[in-house]
Each structure stands twice: as structure tokens, then as C-alpha cells.
Amino acid sequence: MQENPLVTIICLSYNHEKFVVETLNSVVNQNYSPIELIIVDDCSSDATKSVIEDWLLSHSDARFIANEVNLGNTKSFNNALKIAKGNYIIDLAADDLLMPNGIQMQVEAFQKSAYKNLGIVYGNAEIINENGSFNSYYFPVDANKNVITKRKTGDIYSSVLSSGDSICSVSTLIRKDVFDFLGGYDETLSYEDLDSWIRASRVYEFDFIDAILIKKRIVSNSLGTHFFKKNNKINISTYKILRKALKLNRSKVEDLALQKRVNFEIIHSFKNRSFNLLIKNIGLRIEISWRKNYKKY
């Protein structure tokens, strides 16, 4: 019988003392094995580190990295990635909860897929609030909990560019060699997922499982809560990501997909009164419109 491939879960924690034990227990309660668990505490200012250390007393197989200074998510993840041994990687926040059969379903999707260059499998997520109560679903579902709008799979590059087909990043299982190709996360950015999906979908295929794979917790200081603030790092990073994407495009169709996303960013930066960013986005929009030559691959 063929052995199951090793899955590495990198669990990033920062001031998650109230949630981290429940998250770690959702890892050890998976119905799949083998799993390698690497926990990283990014120099929390609360009791998170000691809570993790207490949990490790009865879970000695897990590896623990305690940052002496705050490095941020991308650097912390990349440091853990360097020692990861798994064939597949999960990036898990220390306030989210894996569903018990999630990893098993994702590995089976990889093994049974008809796609020849499948790099990422993702699914749906249940959104919960700070006390764990149900809020909504990441992708809207019907009465049978099946997604209402069918997800595009395979080559989704143009769709990711235009934001026409978002990825539920917290639900992804990613082949390790995808991260090897990407060189990990771009540490110059304030968030990692859009850049990763654009660069990965340029080369790899994506697939979707119509199932709830994880519970994603929304807390008051979640990164997404900064989206509408003036001149915030998230929107500045988005501009950098879209400018990088322009260099990856190979056709006018792909430029039009990127142009659609830039149009949204122009409106968003205007509403936020982020005028320096508005000017940059307008400049990128003009550059896309004037472009005529594409690299041949």
C-alpha cells in the first residue's frame, strides 16, 4: 500500500493566547497522517508563548520557533518553510480551525486529479467570530452547503488577475515545490496571498473542493480591517503586486484582466483619499493600455 505523503502545517501565532490551543488541537485531531507541525510565535506581547510551551509538554513531536523580535508573517513563514519536510504545505493562522477531514480530502484531490500540473487545492471556509459562533461562509452556499457559483479550476491566471475568481487562502493545500518555485512569500509585502496566487497560477493549475475545510476566525485586529484606511500598507502592497503582474502577462487578454483590477484600485484609492496611490494606479492603468509587445515563452 502506498504511504500517505507528509503534510507540513506551519502555524503562525501573534497574540493568540485565547485561540492557539484550540487551533493546535484541530491539527492533532486530523483523521490524516503523517503531519509535521511547525509552530512559530512572532514575539507575542501576551501569554501566547507560554500557552504554546504548556501545550507542547504533551505534544513533543511538534517543532516550536519563538522569534526574539517581531518579524511579521511573511518572514516568519519563510523561516519555518526552510525546515519543512512535507510534500505539501498548509499556512495556518493560530486563530483558525481545521476541519477533521480537511487534509484527507485535499490530499485525495491531488492524487485523483486529472490536472497534470496541479499545484494548489482549496475549498470553502466557515467564517466565525471571536467566540467561535457562526457568521457566514467565505463562498456563499445553498441549503446543501454547496457553493452557489461554480469555481473556475485549472488555468485560473486571468481570473485571479481580475479578481473574478478569488481564492480562499486559509483553505489551501500547496505542493512544496510551488513554494520552491516562488521562493517563499515576498517579504517586501504586507500580505502574501494575492501575489502568491498570481505568480503560482502563471505556472501551476488550481483545483477546488466543494466542502468546508476550515473555520476562519474574524477578530477585531484582523488584517482585512485595515483595507479602508487611508494610505494603508495593504493597498500599497496591492499596487506593487499588480505592477509585478504586468511583467508576467503574455497577451492582451491578460492585460485587460489586469486592467479590470487596476480600475477597481483607482476607485478604491480615490474613495480612501489616498491621492499619491491614486496617481500611481492611474499611471499603471495608462501603461497597461499602451502596451503592445509581449515576451514569447
Q: Radius of gyration from the CA trace? A: 20 Å
How many E strands?
9
Helix count from the secondary structure assignment: 10
Distance between the termini: 41 Å
The largest sheet is: 9 strands, mixed
Mean pLDDT: 93
Low-confidence stretches: none
Series of secondary-structure elements, N-terminal to C-terminal: EHEHEHEEHEEHEHHEHHH
Alpha-beta content class: alpha/beta
Give the amount of beta strand, in percent: 15-25%
What overall form do the CA principal axes indicate? globular
Share in helix? 25-40%
Written description of the protein model:
- Strands 1, 2, 3, 4, 5, 6, 7, 8 and 9 form a nine-stranded mixed sheet that branches.
- It is globular, with a radius of gyration of 20 Å.
- It has 297 residues and is an alpha/beta fold.
- Helix 8 packs parallel to helix 10 (275-290).
- It contains ten helices and nine strands.
- The model has no long low-confidence stretch (mean pLDDT 93).
